[in-house]
Each structure stands twice: as structure tokens, then as C-alpha cells.
Design a protein that fits this description.
With about 350 residues, the chain is mostly helical. It has one domain: ABC transporter involved in vitamin B12 uptake, BtuC (Orthogonal Bundle). Helices cover about 75% and strands about 5% of the residues. A hairpin with a 2-residue loop joins β2 and β3. α2 crosses α12, α3 crosses α10 and α11 crosses α12. It is globular, with a radius of gyration of 22 Å.
């Protein structure tokens, strides 16, 4: 290889890097424009779904940090969201503190409980760890339902709307400006986490925890850190959920909700931040698509709407099994694969 060839190769690499940087800048600019314009051009119905999807993205991202990047099983994400929701509700009702304080406190309280739940992760993993997190969910659900002096039992708590600069955030248009920036910030933080030593330690534990320990990575510290961080995200999502729906009850965070988030990261793609986003979008819209489909069946099946919850659980299970069998890398791999196939089939110029 002569000098001219080397220089040409380097010039080509620089050109490709510049082109990639330009595309990233363009996508960022378009995303920013879409973010600002969406509330003014989208109907309240769709703003409702955008806000709900953003909340689910936050929680799914937290679970992906734990399960996708660290390799630890959990079916307690909904319970940690409940902790965050009740924390926000109690702070609003009894302390009257602003949401800028309530949401971080909700995340911290959920993270502390997550650290306790994560203690068995040094001894058990896989199915046994999942069972341990289910047990924690049952305990938390029992507390939500029976600690009536704090949670008001099955009646739940009514949450006052968040306020910012004297503006009451009680409509999807207004809540959009609260939920979307927080969701974007947390997703950005998660995407940058795995460029740090902590994120690389999480990945090493997932790939081979014994080898990671031999290399000097303290397993208990980083496993607990992963549980705490995942629970922090769930707590923030639960706090946003409380401000969004304004009513918090024990029935708001059932075990099927944890299965929903597990399905979201499997369908979207475990171990990728984009997988959390795609999975949360897809799985949030699935129940609405089911509702629309069953609405069309009501002339022939009058009780069709009543079986939607059962059908939804079945669909979640089918999606989990189907993606594990046929597309383990999730939706995040589907688009590049389709693009590659399209290029292979396109006629040569």
C-alpha cells in the first residue's frame, strides 16, 4: 500500500465521519423542531399518548439498565413506580413542595428501596432473582393497600396538579412541557452512562460476572448500584405518572405492569437505549390497537370489550416468546435488517 492509497483512505474516513456528524446534527435539529412544534399541531388525544409513552420510556430505560445492560432479572418495576407515585402524592398533599423537589425525592426513595431489594442479587440470579423481585412487589402492594394512615388504603390518594411559575399543569398540552424534557434528559443520561466506568462495569457483569470479579469489579457494589439506578428511573416515572393521572391507588401498579415493561425491553431490544424507546412506544400502543380492534367486533360480540384485559396479557406473553424465538435483538435490529435486505434486492445501477 503506497502513501497515496493511505492518504485517500484517511480522507475517505474523514469524509464519512463528517457526513455522519452532519446527519446527527440534522436529526437533532429536526427532533428539536418536532419537540417544540408537536403540542401546537397535535390534538390532545395524541398528546395524551405521547406523554404516556414518554413516562413508559423512562421506566423501560431504567429496567433496561438493570436487565439489558447488567443482566439482572426483575419483575418489580411497577412496584418501584408505585413508590415514586405515592411519594409524590404525599409530598404534594402534606408538604406542598414543588415538583422540582418531589420528582427527585420520589426517585431517591424508590432507589433506596431498590437497593434493599437488590441485596439478594449477589447470591441468586435468573429465575430466582425474578421471584425475589416479585416477592418485593407483593410486599409493597400489601403496604400500599393496608397502610391506610399513609396511603389511604384502597381508596388511594388524589394528587394536586403540578405547578410551574403559577401555571397549573392539568392538561396534556401543559403536562407535555413537564414530562417530555424530563424523559429526554433521563434517556440522554442513560445513553451516556455506558461510556463511563460504571456503565462498562455493568456490561462486564452481564457478560461474565465471575470474570468481572476476577478483574477487580466489586459485584455487590455494582449490582446494587444497577438496582438503585433502575429503581430511581422507575420512581421518577411513577412520579410523572402521578402528576399525569392525578389518582394513585394500589391497583394502579399491578404485576402485569411489570410484565409490560419486561415485554417492552424484549420487544424493543435488550441492552440498547433505542430498544427501550421503540419497545415502550410499541407496547404502549398495543392495548389501544386491541381496543380499536375489539370495538369493531362489538356488533358480533357484545361482551368483546370486557375480555380486553385478559387478551392484553396473552398478547404480551406471545410478543415476549415470539421475539425471544425469532428476533432476540428486538425491533432495534429489524429496521437495519430490512434496510440491508432492500439494498441487496435493489437493482444495480
Amino acid at each position: 500500500m503506497n502513501i497515496q492509497t493511505i492518504d485517500a483512505s484517511r480522507s475517505g474516513a474523514r469524509a464519512r465521519n463528517a457526513a455522519g456528524s452532519n446527519w446527527r446534527t440534522l436529526w437533532f435539529a429536526l427532533s428539536l423542531i418536532a419537540f417544540i412544534a408537536a403540542p401546537f399541531v397535535v390534538a390532545n388525544y395524541w398528546l395524551y399518548w405521547i406523554c404516556l409513552i414518554a413516562i413508559n420510556i423512562v421506566s423501560a430505560t431504567g429496567l433496561n439498565i438493570l436487565s439489558g445492560y447488567t443482566g439482572l432479572s426483575s419483575l418489580g418495576q411497577a412496584a418501584f413506580m408505585g413508590v415514586g407515585a405515592y411519594t409524590v402524592a404525599l409530598l404534594e398533599l402534606r408538604a406542598g413542595t414543588p415538583f422540582l423537589i418531589n420528582l427527585p425525592v420520589a426517585g431517591i426513595v424508590a432507589a433506596l428501596i431498590g437497593l434493599i431489594v437488590g441485596i439478594p442479587s449477589l447470591r441468586v440470579r435468573g429465575l430466582y432473582l425474578a421471584i425475589a423481585t416479585i416477592a418485593a412487589s407483593i410486599i409493597l402492594d400489601f403496604i400500599f393497600a393496608n397502610w391506610t394512615s399513609v396511603t389511604n388504603g384502597v381508596k388511594g390518594l388524589t394528587v394536586p396538579p403540578a405547578q410551574a411559575f403559577g401555571i397549573v399543569l392539568d392538561q396534556p398540552f401543559k403536562l407535555y412541557w413537564l414530562i417530555m424534557p424530563i424523559a429526554a434528559l433521563l434517556v440522554w443520561m442513560a445513553s451516556n452512562l455506558f461510556k463511563t466506568r460504571v456503565g462498562r462495569a455493568f456490561i462486564a457483569i452481564r457478560d461474565r460476572d465471575i470474570s468481572a470479579e476476577v478483574l477487580g469489579i466489586p459485584l455487590l457494589r455494582y449490582k446494587l448500584m444497577s438496582f438503585g439506578l433502575s429503581s430511581f428511573y422507575a420512581g421518577i416515572a411513577g412520579g410523572l405518572w402521578a402528576y399525569f393521572f392525578r389518582v394513585v391507588t394500589p391497583e394502579s401498579f399491578p404485576i402485569v405492569m411489570s410484565i409490560f415493561f419486561l415485554a417492552a425491553i424484549i420487544v424493543g431490544g435488550m441492552g440498547t437505549i433505542m430498544g427501550s424507546i421503540l419497545g415502550a412506544i410499541f407496547m404502549t400502543l398495543v392495548p389501544e390497537l386491541l381496543r380499536f380492534g375489539f370495538t369493531l367486533l362489538t356488533p358480533w360480540m357484545p361482551d368483546a370489550m370486557s375480555i380486553i384485559p385478559a387478551v392484553r396479557s396473552i398478547v404480551f406473553g406471545v410478543l415476549i416468546v415470539g421475539f425471544l424465538l425469532f428476533e432476540p435483538q428486538g425491533l432495534v435490529e429489524v429496521l437495519p435488517r430490512l434496510r440491508r435486505r432492500f439494498r441487496l434486492r435493489s437493482p444495480k445501477s
